[in-house]
Structure formats: structure tokens, C-alpha cells
Design a protein that fits this description.
It comes from Paenibacillus phytorum. It is built from 12 helices and 5 strands. It is an alpha/beta fold. The chain is elongated, with a radius of gyration of 22 Å. The two termini are 25 Å apart.
């Protein structure tokens, strides 16, 4: 299934060029075009395209304002920003609002095709995860896991940790214990609350409620640092080889893509690294679903 795409740009030449490139490359189908943010928001909310190509600066309502309006109205598609602006603050704000990529003006056919190809891959991965979740919902997976199953869970988790390059991180043992615990005590396909999981794993490490609370916080911090290491590994691979299979698979599946892009930017420009942020819940939920999917296969 091809991507459905909406183009929002006040430049008629730019709109025409983008539509021609999309039609010719065959990655997606243009559902419509708009010459301003207000008109574009109305059309997008009505037709719900998979992807929106939107200009950063428009006379009536700029791209960032339009994206904010759309997200507040419940639209959850992907955004690609079109701009000739190089202002780092504006670019950073756009990423924070949820864009996936930038396409620079003047329009370059190769860049447009490359960006659309990457967004298409990310879209397919997200559909894959959604399909896994739907498939698991149809399975009867209630009840405890046998000891043999526990060992199998550990083997699956270790394989994923190795692919992410974090098997040697101190938090990897916590992730293994957490996944074993979550799968052993699962009652449905939903992922348990993180606090509940941390405490359950902590019980296997410590005795006494005071120690449990302290250990739960320590587990969270170790896992956070380990996930950050995975993020750095993926960003490093992406800088070296953007088409690397591990990067193409794991980066958009386990992380918010704007976090990957920002981390790559920091590394590429040799900026002073900050603490960064990671979405622990998303990472562990995807890890849990992928582990279940591999077990069931």
C-alpha cells in the first residue's frame, strides 16, 4: 500500500515540483495540495493522509503552528518540513513538534525521493509493530511460563540486546529480568506499568520494603542509561551507514526518530553531548512485543 500524502506550501511551483516527483517515484499518492496552513489543516483533518509535506514559513499560518493545531486535533500522521531556513532554534522547535525530516529548498529530486523512502520505511515498521500487537491480541497467552519458556525468553532478549549493542551494559541484566517477569506473569497483551515491573524485579534482588523502593529506582536508572547507550549506538551506525540493516530496523522501531536525528546531529557536529532523553516506556513496550512475537514464532 502506497503512502497517502498531502502537500501544504504557498509556492505553487514548489507544490507542482513535489507532486511530479511523488507521482514519478511511486512511493506515495498525493491526495491534495493546499497553499496555506489554515486551508491545509482543514483538508488534512478531513482526509487523514499518512504523511504531510509542509512549508515552514507561510503567510497565513506557519508550518509549526499548523502542526501544533493538527496534533491538538488528534491527527497522528507524519510530517516532513519544507524550508530554506537554517536557523537552528527553528529547526529544533520543528523536531520537538514532531516532524520526521527536513526537505531543503530549492527542491532537489534526489533528496525528496530519499526522504520519502526513509519515511516510508518507518511507516512500514510501525505498521509491523501494530500488526504484531493485533495478532497477539487474538492469542491465548494467559498463564505462567514454564521454566523452559523462561530460558527461551532469556535467549530471545539476549539476541535483541546484542543487535542493539548493549549486551555488555550493566542495565542489560535488568532488562532480561524485567522481560522474563513481564512475560511470566502476563494476563493479556498489554504491557504492565513500569513501576510495578521495577518493584517486581527488585523483589528478586532485595529483601525488605525499604530496599525494594531504593532498588526500584536504581533499576530504572540503569535501564535508562542502557537505553541511552542503545540510542547512541544506533545514531553512530546511522552516521556511518544510513542503509545499515540494523539501523533501518531498530532505530525507528525502538526510538522516536527525532531523538535519533538530534543525536546524529550532535555527533556529526561534534557538539558537547548532553544527558539526552529516551522514551523508556516505548522502548520496553516494543522490546516486550518483539520478544513475544519471536517466542510465538
Amino acid at each position: 500500500m502506497a503512502l497517502s500524502i498531502m502537500i501544504v506550501d504557498d509556492d505553487v511551483v514548489c507544490r507542482s515540483m513535489l507532486q511530479d516527483i511523488i507521482d514519478e517515484c511511486g512511493i506515495g499518492k498525493v491526495m491534495g495540495t493546499a497553499e496555506g496552513g489554515i486551508e491545509g489543516a482543514r483538508m488534512i483533518l478531513k482526509s487523514k493522509p499518512d504523511v504531510v509535506l509542509i512549508d515552514l514559513l507561510m503567510p497565513d499560518q506557519d508550518g509549526i503552528e499548523t502542526i501544533t493545531q493538527l496534533k491538538n486535533s488528534g491527527y497522528d500522521g507524519k510530517f516532513i518540513m519544507i524550508s530554506q531556513i537554517e536557523n537552528k532554534d527553528m529547526v529544533g522547535e520543528a523536531y520537538q513538534k514532531g516532524i520526521e525530516f527536513f526537505i531543503h529548498k530549492p527542491i532537489n529530486r534526489v533528496e525528496v525521493e530519499h526522504v520519502l523512502s526513509k519515511v516510508n520505511e518507518q511507516w512500514k515498521y510501525e505498521r509491523y509493530v501494530s500488526e504484531i500487537k493485533q495478532s497477539l491480541a487474538k492469542l491465548d497467552i494467559a498463564g505462567p511460563t514454564s521454566p523452559r519458556k523462561e530460558r527461551k525468553v532469556r535467549d530471545v532478549v539476549k539476541t535483541i540486546l546484542m543487535d542493539l549493542g548493549i549486551i555488555g551494559e550493566i542495565g542489560s541484566k535488568d532488562i532480561i529480568a524485567l522481560m522474563e517477569n513481564a512475560i511470566e506473569h502476563r494476563e493479556a497483551t498489554s504491557f504492565p506499568p513500569l513501576k510495578e515491573l521495577y518493584e517486581s524485579v527488585a523483589h528478586t534482588y532485595k529483601q525488605g520494603q525499604k530496599d525494594i523502593e531504593k532498588e526500584s529506582k536504581a533499576i530504572e536508572q540503569r535501564i535508562r542509561r542502557t537505553i541511552m547507550a542503545a540510542l547512541n549506538n544506533m545514531a553512530s551506525i546511522g552516521l556511518t551507514d544510513y542503509s545499515n540493516p540494523k539501523f533501518e530496523y531498530y532505530a525507528p522501531l525502538y526510538f522516536d526518530f527525532q531523538d535519533i536525528r538530534m543525536r546524529m546531529k550532535v555527533m556529526d557536529e561534534e557538539q558537547q553531548p548532553d544527558k539526552g532523553k529516551v522514551n523508556i516506556k516505548k522502548f520496553l513496550q516494543v522490546f516486550y512485543m518483539e520478544t513475544l512475537e519471536k517466542l510465538n514464532n
